[in-house]
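Human: Cast an eye over this sequence-structure pair and say how the chain folds.
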Amino acid sequence: MKAVYMENKLAFEEDFSPLQFAVGTSAGGERLFRACQTFTETRRDDSDKRVLVTLDNKNAFNSFDRQAILDELGTKWPSLVDFFWQFYATPAELWYRMEDGRTATSSEFLDDFIGAFMDDIDGEVDETCVMRYVDRAEQLLAEKKLRLQRDKSTRWSPRRQQDSDIPADIATSDVKCSTEGITVLGCPIGATSFIQRSLKKITIGHQPLLEAIVTFAQMGLQGSDLLLRYCVSPRLNYWLRLLPSNSDVSLAAAERYDAAIITAFRRMFYFPGDFPDSVSAQVQLPIRLGGFGFISATTIVRTAFLGSVGLTASDVSSRFHGPYGCLRVGAALLDLPWLQTAAPAFVAVSEVVGPSFSLPSL
């Protein structure tokens, strides 16, 4: 499936653009997130009524009309129909885990179903058009057998910072109006306090997996060590790449996450008490240097963010300087807050690697 996509990605990108951004590119999710950031950070003035809206569909991947997929392929890429027919010719039997631990097939679908990942839709809309946008989206999604969850959909604008800022007609609508921020592709955009709470919730959400791996270590250290190294240790990297490495945001979350990894490792080996700093440093070294490969999130927090900025800035600039963009009104790319926050991280990294490597400038 991936090979077919890679072979045709340029054709897909040409067909989907400009409405769908970051098709056929690496780190497409990061580019989409930066595009949403740019939209919210290029407001013209306090009267600007643009808002960012996220729409959530219930069980989208499993519910989408497979016939619609094949029909679209037959119209635009008929040569691919036979290949995809192997996967979608007959309905697949789906199994779900319920809250009480029972399993059920799709024919026994109940309200207490614990859903799989649900694809979100992010829209940039004038505040006065939100409900018309949502109604139209619901209609189009229903044609593909998708059900919009209005109660889980959200709108946000930086100009609405407290409940009193929200007009009555907006406050009483069935699409929540956030005053703190919004989550795009699993990552928060908005006030610092909102981002901090979101990151804390994310790191706490990883704790059950850590506990399960510690328990699994009683049956075999090798398997639990591999799970900890490859399934848990890198899990924070996505958010480290997208969020600024400020001491009160990503860096604080990275420090908590590192501590949780080291604690789990210590418990796996029944080590009494806390590790000395030297032992923690040894554990976090790469395997080729005699460590266990649990790369410290605190160590890479700045370079991760800079890497994402370097990867996404040119695409975002092209997107928003074009006919559909908002940078054409005079806002310079380097004036955007998300790029400005890269400057301190760049300085910090330069102080460490500058003598040995030549770094590009922002």
About this structure: Residues 200-295 form one domain. Residues 297-321 form the longest helix (25 residues). Confidence is low (pLDDT under 50) at residues 106-118, 327-331. DSSP finds 16 helices and eight strands in the chain.
